[in-house]
Structures are given as C-alpha cells and as structure tokens.
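Mods, move this if it's the wrong board.
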Amino acid sequence: MVEQFFLALAAAIAAMMMAAVPYFWLTRRARPAPHGARLEREIEPIAFLFRNGVLIDATAPARSLLDRLPGADDWQRLTAWLAMRLPDLGPLLPDLAAAARIEMTETAVARPLHLLAEGLGQGFLRLTLTDPSAENAGVLVNSLSLAAMENELEILRSTMDHAPMLAWREDAAGQLTWANSAYLALAEAKADQANCWPLPRLIDLTARPPAGGGAASGARRAQIEHDGQSRWYEWHAHQIGGQTVAVALPADAAVRAERSLREFVQTLTKTFADLPIGLAIFDRDRNLQLFNPALIDLTGLAAGFLTGRPTLYAFLDRLREARMVPEPKDYRSWRNQMNSLEAAASSGHHVEMWSLPGGQTYRVTGRPHPDGAVAFLFEDITSEISLTRKFRADLSLGAEVLDALDDAVAVFAASGDLLLSNRRYGELWGTSGRSTLGEQIGRWSRACGDSPGLEQLRLALDRMPLAHPAQGAMAGPNGGLLSWGLRSLSGGRVLLSFAAPLPAPPSQLVAPEPGQDAAAADRGVAVAG
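Not the wrong board. Structure tokens:
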C-alpha cells in the first residue's frame, strides 16, 4: 500500500516536471532581449572600410548615404560631408588612416552625429557613424514614413542643386557648414578644380542680419572675380538659430542695365548741360526729377531749391515770386492758368508765349512723357521776337516807300508770278492779290489795246534777262502815254515800272474786239513762259 502511494507520487511529480519544461522554454523564448542587442539585430550600422582612400566595403545604409552625396569619388564625398558636420575633422583628414582610434561627436545640432575612426593598419581605415541619441532607445522608423521623408529630402536636394543661385550656411564663427552644388562648383573652379575643406567664403557677409526673428536683411551686392571677369551677385541673409543662411542671385544683367542707364543719363546730362533751352522733367506725382543748368540761368531759381525736387506748383509759385511768369490779374486766375498749362502739357504738345514783366519773351513748351511724366522746355526767344519785329518793320517801311512813289512798280519772279506791287500799280491796272505775268499782259491789252509800244514791252519781257535796262512808251488806259522801264534783278526776277501817264485830250477808247483780247492774252502767256 505504501509502495503504491510512493509510485503514484513519483508519477505525479514526473508529470508536473514534464509539463513545466515547455512552460519554462516558452517563457525564456518570450523574455525580451536587451534594447541594444535588439537594435543591433534589426538596424544595420553605417560603416565604411577604406584602404588608401578607396572604398573596399560598406554596409547598405552606408552605400545609401554615399549615393546621396555629391562629389567625384567616395572618399571625397564622404569626407566633405563629414567636414560640414564635424568642423574639427578637416585638419585630421590627411593623417586619419594612421591614427589608431579617433572619436568625434557633433555639437551644433539637436541630433548629433558620432564618428568612430579606427586605423586597422596597412592603409585600412574603418569609419562608423552612429546617432548617440538613438542608442538603447529602441526607436524604429516606419518604412513608409522613411520613404516619404527620403522622397522629400531628394526633392529639396535636387531643387537646391539645380537652382541657378549660390546658397550656403555659416556658423557664428563664419565657418561654412553647408553649400549647394552651384556654390561648390564655383568654389572648385576658383580653386583650380581642387575640392578643399573648409570651403572658402566667396562672399563675405560683413553686415549681419539682426538677431532674432529670422527677418531678411536688405539685398546687398557682392563682386566675385573669376577667370579675369567680375561676377556680380545680389545676396540676402537670414538668421536661423545660431547659423546664417545666405542666398546669392546672379546680378550681372541688372548691373549691366544699371551701368548702361547711368551712362545714358550721364550722356543726356552732358547734352542737356550744353543746351540753351531750360529743361524741367516732372514725374507722375509732379515732383521735379531732372533739370539742366540752363533752367537756372533762365529762371534765376536757386540750385538748392531745384535739387530738393519741388512739386510742379511749388516750382511755378517760385517763378511767380521771381516775376518770371506773365503778370497775373490775381492769384486765382494765375492758378487756373497754370492748371490749364499742366493739363494741356499732360494730354499733348502745348506751346505758350510768356511776355515777362522784364521785357523778355519765353516760349514754354509742355510735352507728355511715359508713365505720366511731363517735361517743360523754357526758351528765351526775346532776340528772335525782336528780329521778327524788326523784319516786319523793315517790310512795312519798304511797302510805305513803294506806295509813296509816283511810278507804278511791280516785281515778277522768273516763273512769271507777281511778287509785289505798289499802290500806284494797283490803281493804274486794277490789280490786287496774286497774279501772273501772262494775266497782267492780258489786262494791259484789254485796257489799252494793241499798240507798237505794248508789243515792244512784250518782246523785251521775252528776252529777259536783259544785259542792260530797257525802256519804251505805250498807250495808257486813259488815252495818255505811259513810259515803261525794265530792269533785271537777281534770281531771274524782273522790275517793271510805269511812269505816270501824261495828260491827254479826253477821248473814248474803243474797246478791242474779243478776238484781239484773246490773242493778246495768248501772247502774254507765251512771254511769261
């Protein structure tokens, strides 16, 4: 009985032990592994193996990193990228393979990069990159999220690399920490295709943007010398955290345009300076933008007043105070007159004559210019007006002298046109207005009839120009005798004079036949031709 009890007890214990073995095995299998061991199995490290600067082997993440870095070869791409993240690495790069072990950690960012460089001898160098903040954190990245971030990063990188502008970042010490492809290409070209790190500062950001807020400073110009040529850039700087982000846009076209405009303005200025006509150009807001020295001479306005860019109405008010405008009846009428002047000049070509109180006469011309501007030209025409008045007085005097003569005088052009005649000629032949020699011969023939004296006059006119003056006599319109004289003038012109008719017994002249008038007129036209 006792033996059966112990046998049953032993069997129960054995059964319990056999049941416990799977439990302990499952429990051991289900126990979580340490964080570091699990990350090492699930996240492959970023490691590179170089020999004398040539990549021998690399992990998959390491090769993925190299594929995204610009540069000529693997060593150049990786060291340039590391030097941007670890500025102290630059001086150590030439002797990095000879060093036994070097560890460096980035300090300028929130997620620092840790570098472990191990010299393995015979030119072998192993570089391992890790993120200390992720160690033992058990952080895993979703593959879709990682792909989206990598896609966005590739878009941003390709955009910056294909942008035709220079872009770079500088730390507080002025050391470059990042640059885009355009900046790298220009830096390499200036360094004879040698890739050196740290990168040189192509543009010195001497004027720092204001700290805080990240507001953009005003655009500034910088000049870069390359291949014997000057390249101009217009750069902007932003303060982001402890670094400065700068972009520089090519400004060669803008500089050339400004230089051409400046030279053009200088040429215009020199030209305007030699003009005797005063020039004043007002913009669309009617502020004075351009004037020449002649304006100062003609108006007597101070140069300081004009350089202050006064308005059009302030300019005209100052002219009124200097008595350089026509004397107005009152201010209101003068202001209305100036408003009309400005409106007429803005809408089209407008000319006014200003008779000034001092005796001068100015011609004021207003012309519209593009973009609503208006230009005024001030020209002193006092001498021109005086000359015109003198010329008119001389003409009037000459006409009075001719009208005072007792003889009838007429001057014909080489073409036969009647140029001038005195009052006595008009009274004798009833001529007024424009006429021709042929018409005048017909008039003479109708008034006097055909006579030997008139025929001699026709023949003399046909022989013009004469070497010597010719004279003769013919029947006058009142039955008396007329003496005529011909004299050649310059330019083929002819001076014809008829002396006062002599008294004759009253007699009724017989009107010539119509056929005779027509024949005489035809002969006159022939002589005129």
